[in-house]
């Protein structure tokens, strides 16, 4: 099966997203060499280099800012559409969010879609954790018809097999949405040599067609979360958001580096929230990606 067909099937089956012709001359989905390089290069690939501002979340994956800097653009951090577009040229959304696991509501997504379309600014949603909702939370894609409406004009979504299929080493990602925007990116990528090798495309197609391994991996993460979260709370810390994704967004209402020191004293490694922007300076990110044995060791140390 062609990886684009497999991707379209996965988007429809798992996320309720119907793409325009994925195999058409103007494609609505293409494979990418992972999602990180796509995020870092997207402003450049869309021809946005030079002047303008990229809007990113207040607390955000650092590569959104890196991509803007590479393209010579400015960055504005905001969690809601600004009253005036100013010189905005691109919007990044991230739901579920890294590092905090926050999931945007349908109303929040629709507000961004309407704002982007009203001002002619592409809205791109990084949805790499979309398969990992907890406690009944079901993250919605920006491409879902309840959000996007009857078409995907002005919208793109980024997905990755690194999380749901634990295939980080394969460098296997997807870009889908507005065919005009997808084609623009696809055309430039080909000339830059950013092509996904055929064996990786075959592996992607197989993974995207198989739901069982995704469900099994999600249950592993759920089990780790169910053990680690109570231990964090028992140790006197608070968990904010974290309703989806691979992380716990933890605070002791102190500077994040003080919390890092506390955890280091227990032999536990976390990421300081300040890495993700000034608004994260009183949180740390704990990952569920450690082995079961390491998660159990962390639980034991937190509750000792």
Automatic annotation (TrEMBL):
InterPro entries: Aminotransferase_I/II_large, LL-DAP_aminotransferase, OxyQ, PyrdxlP-dep_Trfase, PyrdxlP-dep_Trfase_major, PyrdxlP-dep_Trfase_small. GO terms for molecular function: pyridoxal phosphate binding; transaminase activity. It comes from the Bacteria. Residues 25-302 form the Aminotransferase class I/classII large domain. Pfam families: Aminotran_1_2. Keywords: Aminotransferase, Transferase. SUPFAM superfamilies: PLP-dependent transferases. Its cofactor is pyridoxal 5'-phosphate. PANTHER family: AMINO ACID AMINOTRANSFERASE, L-GLUTAMINE--4-(METHYLSULFANYL)-2-OXOBUTANOATE AMINOTRANSFERASE. This is Aminotransferase. It comes from Modestobacter marinus. The lineage of its organism: Bacteria, Bacillati, Actinomycetota, Actinomycetes, Geodermatophilales.
